[in-house]
């Protein structure tokens, strides 16, 4: 990280505010310091509290200036048209994830004519629950009410699951249980489960209870996942300091070896193993850059030849 | 000063004096709707409607972000959206909110306003709104100037009468001085607002072609 010139701090004090100068070590340039200061002030204005607003702004700026991600400081991150709550210990939703989730929602709602009787979606390593929540919102608005939605999110971290449930509680587009219930075939549900995707009981006991059986596997339309994918060397060198110091390692990298593949690709091997059993109609996995995408595509080929399934992989690169 | 009467005017028109003479009361809903008008109806009527967004085929959209790693490896807070209108070459940028979805909408609003300004000139919505705001600010400034002039005159008169009433006069002077400070500040504020309104928007900075929206839209 290049050193910031002292004159930049003076410029921030003079042209924006002393608080902006305090934000500079984290923001690195004047424009984003001014933006973040404005957002912090707006946040303080919009949320009532007994603490005086000036003091709150000062406290938040101090925290942000020390390098804590803005999303943890303010407690939220916009994701599509949702404000997803963020807490330390759970990965912050990224804009790339937002972009492909919105794209996915339009694909799911427009590609099928006539609209399907039901859609079932499984999100592995769900974190804040942002992907299933945004899908639920978008599909709830765009699909006709005759289509049932059966969405499940799975994560290993108890903190993530409780946050995902809190987010679901806050952004629930579905009518309250008190109102007349829809007929059972037209229900729209989203549930979060805390379990490891490496658990041996996942495939044998949990998943069959969540999705109805079909002729080939389980009746699953979409398997989506944003697993930890950063390699040990990338984590040490290419990862931003705020991410390394403040976001959970559990959600970023996997250090142990598992069978024949690289540590950073272990999750894809397991995801493909799960996909081979469930035989979902579509699979979407986020990967970190072109090289990893190519490795995962090769892996998909190996799995489909081994298991005879139709590998319909859809990787999502993140231009690194 | 005249606002309460202005808001009553439509009520009188609705009710009509003839009805009042006959002892027939107007329908209560009409009265309620008219009586709770808070803004002057005359300005609202003259404002042209918000311009429609240009078609997506004419827009080139780009998300401004640095090169380098993305995804889990970094954590961006900037979600600025830049739009280029291909036929005219107008470029607008919005980084008003943290939400890209919102910024995309705000940037399109802004582009629609600029295109409207280009097509309709002084009849465009931005120009008309700017005019209205400028007039309002000017009249406010005039009123405040009048008020403090009057206060100053009164103070002078009292000063002449109570020339010998030492302590009391002193106190009053102090109070009046404070008031004057207030006026000065108000004047400054007004100046700032005027500067903004001549540019035709809510706190928008305007360069020759690039326009950056940093404030949240009035909704």
From TrEMBL, chain A:
Gene3D superfamilies: Vaccinia Virus protein VP39. One of its GO terms (cellular component) is mitochondrion. One of its GO terms (molecular function) is methyltransferase activity. PROSITE patterns: N6_MTASE. GO terms for biological process: methylation. InterPro entries: DNA_methylase_N6_adenine_CS, N5-glutamine_MTase, SAM-dependent_MTases_sf. PANTHER family: HEMK METHYLTRANSFERASE, MTRF1L RELEASE FACTOR GLUTAMINE METHYLTRANSFERASE. This is Uncharacterized protein. It comes from Staphylotrichum longicolle.
From TrEMBL, chain B:
Residues 171-188 have a biased composition (Acidic residues). It is found in: Mitochondrion. SUPFAM superfamilies: Release factor. The keyword Transferase does not apply. The keyword Plastid does not apply. One of its GO terms (molecular function) is translation release factor activity. Residues 55-154 form the Prokaryotic-type class I peptide chain release factors domain. Pfam families: RF-1. Residues 135-149 have a biased composition (Basic residues). One of its GO terms (cellular component) is mitochondrion. Keywords: Mitochondrion, Signal, Transit peptide. GO terms for biological process: mitochondrial translation. Residues 150-170 have a biased composition (Basic and acidic residues). InterPro entries: Mito_Transl_Release_Factor (IPR052405), Pep_chain_release_fac_I (IPR000352), Pep_chain_release_fac_I_sf (IPR045853). Residues 42-81, 122-219 are annotated as: Disordered. Residues 1-20 form the signal peptide. Belongs to the prokaryotic/mitochondrial release factor family. This is Prokaryotic-type class I peptide chain release factors domain-containing protein. It comes from Staphylotrichum longicolle.
């Amino acid at each position: 990280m290049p050193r910031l010139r002292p004159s930049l701090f003076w410029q921030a004090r003079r042209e924006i505010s002393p608080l902006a100068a305090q934000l500079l070590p984290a923001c690195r340039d004047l424009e984003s310091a001014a933006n973040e200061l404005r957002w912090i002030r707006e946040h303080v204005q919009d949320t009532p509290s007994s603490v005086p607003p000036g003091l709150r702004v000062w406290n938040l700026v101090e925290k942000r200036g020390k390098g804590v991600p803005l999303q943890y400081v303010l407690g939220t991150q916009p994701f599509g048209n949702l404000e997803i709550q963020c807490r330390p210990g759970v990965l912050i939703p990224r804009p790339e994830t937002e972009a492909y989730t919105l794209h996915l929602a339009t694909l799911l709602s427009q590609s099928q004519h006539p609209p399907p009787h039901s859609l079932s979606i499984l999100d592995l390593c769900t974190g804040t629950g942002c992907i299933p929540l945004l899908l639920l919102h978008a599909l709830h608005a765009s699909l006709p009410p005759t289509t049932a939605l059966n969405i499940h999110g799975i994560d290993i971290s108890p903190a993530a699951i409780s946050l995902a449930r809190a987010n679901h509680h806050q952004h629930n587009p579905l009518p309250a249980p008190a109102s007349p219930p829809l007929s059972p075939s037209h229900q729209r549900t989203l549930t979060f489960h805390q379990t490891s995707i490496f658990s041996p009981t996942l495939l044998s006991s949990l998943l069959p209870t969540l999705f109805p059986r079909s002729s080939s596997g389980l009746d699953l339309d979409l398997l989506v996942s944003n697993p930890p994918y950063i390699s040990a060397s990338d984590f040490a060198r290419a990862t931003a300091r705020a991410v390394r110091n403040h976001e959970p390692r559990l959600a970023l990298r996997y250090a142990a070896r598992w069978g024949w593949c690289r540590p950073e690709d272990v999750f894809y091997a397991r995801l493909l193993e799960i996909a081979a059993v469930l035989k979902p109609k579509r699979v979407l996995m986020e990967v970190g850059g072109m090289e990893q995408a190519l490795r995962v595509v090769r892996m998909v080929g190996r799995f489909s030849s081994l298991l005879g399934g139709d590998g319909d992989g859809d990787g999502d690169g993140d231009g690194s | 000063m005249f606002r309460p009467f202005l808001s009553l005017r439509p009520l009188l028109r609705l009710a009509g004096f003839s009805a009042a003479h006959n002892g027939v009361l107007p329908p209560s809903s009409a009265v309620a709707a008219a009586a709770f008008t808070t803004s002057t109806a005359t300005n609202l009527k003259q404002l042209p409607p918000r311009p429609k967004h240009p078609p997506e085929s004419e827009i080139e959209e780009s998300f401004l972000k640095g090169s380098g790693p993305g995804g889990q490896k970094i954590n961006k807070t900037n979600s600025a959206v830049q739009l280029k209108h291909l036929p005219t070459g107008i470029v607008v940028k919005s980084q008003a909110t943290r939400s890209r979805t919102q910024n995309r909408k705000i940037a399109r609003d802004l582009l629609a306003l600029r295109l409207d300004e280009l097509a309709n000139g002084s009849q465009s919505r931005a120009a008309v709104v700017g005019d209205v705001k400028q007039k309002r600010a000017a009249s406010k400034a005039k009123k405040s100037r009048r008020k403090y002039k009057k206060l100053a005159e009164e103070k002078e008169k009292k000063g002449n009468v109570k020339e010998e009433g030492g302590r009391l006069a002193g106190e009053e002077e102090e109070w009046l001085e404070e008031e004057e400070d207030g006026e000065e500040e108000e004047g400054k504020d007004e100046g700032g607002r005027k500067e903004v309104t001549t540019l035709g928007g809510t706190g928008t900075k305007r360069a020759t072609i690039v326009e950056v929206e940093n404030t949240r839209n009035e909704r």
